[in-house]
Amino acid sequence: MSHLPDSHLWLESLDDPAVDTWVAAQNKRTQAVLDADERYAPLRQEILDHLRDTRQIPFFSEHAGWLYNFHQDEHHPRGIYRRTTLADYQAASQQWHTVLDVDAVAAAAGKDWYLDGVAHCTVQPSRVLVHLSEGGGDASLAWEYDLETASWVEQGFRFPHGKNHIAWRDPDSVLVCPGWKGAPLSRSGYPREVWLVERGADGQHQWQQLFVADQDAMMVAAWRYLDGPDGWLDLIEAADGFYSKTYHLIDADLQTHPLPLPPKADIEAYLHGQFIVKLAEDWCWQGETHAAGSLLAVPLACLLGDAGGIQLLVAPAARLAVESVETTRSSVVVNLIDNVRSRLQAFDWQGGSWHARSLPVPDSGVIEFADQPWNSDVLCYSFSDFLTPTGLYRLNVATGEQDCLRQQPAAFDASGFVAEQCWATASDGVDIPYFVVRARDTVFDGQTPTLLYGYGGFEVPMMPYYVENFGAHWLEKGGAFVLACIRGGGEFGPGWHQAAQGIKRPVSFDDFCSVAEALIGSGLTRPDKLGIEGGSNGGLLVAACMVRRPELFKAVVCEVPLLDMLRYTELLAGASWIDEYGDPADPQQAAALQAYSPYHQLQAAARYPLPLFTTSTRDDRVHPGHARKMVAQMQALGHPALLMETDAGGHTGNAGQEQTAAELARVLVYLYQQLMD
């Protein structure tokens, strides 16, 4: 670990009044620049009204004939969990019934609680575990709740606040990986143990330890797969790193057995006694090599030593990636990314093998699985593209019949705009895809204010989602929006990700700058009209590009970022990302990290654009100290920088609609000031 002097180390404290005072002063300075702009208040209200538009799609999960939805509005800022029937959902007038009021629960407890999720027991879905987080952070508590009586279960399951992993096993038992205070935790602050907790009389539940991971493990998780109404399988995932793991089968005697899968393989689903496995590395099994990027059907019996062949479902290809997998009662459904657009393929088990068929869904934009009612052939999915509002569809995978359940109202008139896929050439000659959304009659004279968005990490793909608020408040004001699909992401499979993994991270920065140069070279925009935006790993991306190539950009929106790459492993969940970035405890890797670490590469003599950094005091994933220290260092070197740190929302923005609207309005006002005024 590097021990470079750090004069701003004190800003990492989460309980120092002096830090609170410093943050308050920074917020006040930022609000004087952004909130005081005459455009801010009406813009915030317009965005809030849009969020509260009752025509927005209420996404749901279906259990035993009920459609459950989490809803927030001005009367319920923390939200309510409610339900309706499919018939009422499809009707013009919906009849929703509240089963849990989060505002009332938080008020009764006197806590700053937000809903972090509701986990239904699949075979008895009226029983749920309600996960509540403090201020919207990742850590949460879990209490058992009865949806029929709308009350907490007396002497039911209750687990303390922490980064726990808890999953129903059956109506009277749960698999628990404790992440609360006092439990053995990994260096990253995640669970190391797996317990079976069985319901007992008078709330005296029975605990039995099933598994303990090594001290240097990253985390463990456990859950039950249901294979039809009668079949099941209990599984433990023990992660050594972010991409390296072992799977362990829990047998009927509660003994665990490691499965001989390669370390860089993900079990995506289980159906008809077979695991659906995605490979991130080559795997040689019984004399046959399966290539990285493959999706395989692997019989459990085969892994346990019996005869039985592995079947290739999806072969790796240059511009193809497996995004996600879902199972229905009969079929495996694979969401493929084909040249950065989605398409669905089904696989049916017939005559002892899997048979592929295409599904009749749109293939010009992005598809996301929305819901799959258990023990049915129904699959709900959403579809959108940059200029097409999201639609929610209900598909019968067995028959191909489908209905559009709901179409989101258009946020803007898209008729005057186009979205096109383009390609930039990286410094090493690799073609980098990006999308440009612009006015149809754009003049390529370098005058178009342009926002370039990117991520480039953790094998997460950037896809053509509906631009919604940016359509109404950016495109219609003369701006262009660009989405970069750089290496480090998951657009083209594991190789695309691994090309910018570890100490090769600067490859993603080079790709992003290559896209910026292509935009300028095309005549769409010019440096004083070009802004960049990214969050989390994307915050690292845009900050690194700012310090490397400050002359390319006029605006930088850096959200919930990690920026000190020599101390990131010491802060909150940072140690879990060593596989992604490299280990600063290794001298060679530390040198590579320091060479691009935005916090360490700031220079007094450089001329940086005025950046906007955002973070949250309640972010328990990426420490707010990253953004605080970056701003402090910029200001110490004589460079202006804006910081906005919220009290709630955590890393994912899990807060009320008013805060969401305020945050987006500030970003837009900042972009107006930097690129349009």
UniProtKB/TrEMBL annotation:
Q: What's its EC?
A: 3.4.21.26
* UniProt-listed GO biological process terms: proteolysis
Q: Which GO terms describe its molecular function?
A: oligopeptidase activity; serine-type endopeptidase activity
Q: Which residues form the Peptidase S9A N-terminal domain?
A: 5-408
- Gene3D superfamilies per UniProt: alpha/beta hydrolase (3.40.50.1820), Prolyl oligopeptidase, N-terminal domain (2.130.10.120)
- InterPro entries according to UniProt: AB_hydrolase_fold, Pept_S9A_N, Peptidase_S9_cat, Peptidase_S9A, Prolyl_oligopep/macrocyclase
A Gene Ontology cellular component where this protein is annotated is: cytosol
Domain of life, per UniProt, equals Bacteria
> Can the keyword Magnesium be found in this entry's annotation?
no
Give the record's keywords alphabetically: Hydrolase, Protease, Serine protease
**Peptidase S9 prolyl oligopeptidase catalytic domain ranges (all copies):** 472-675
Q: What is this protein called?
A: Prolyl endopeptidase
Source species of the chain: Aquitalea magnusonii
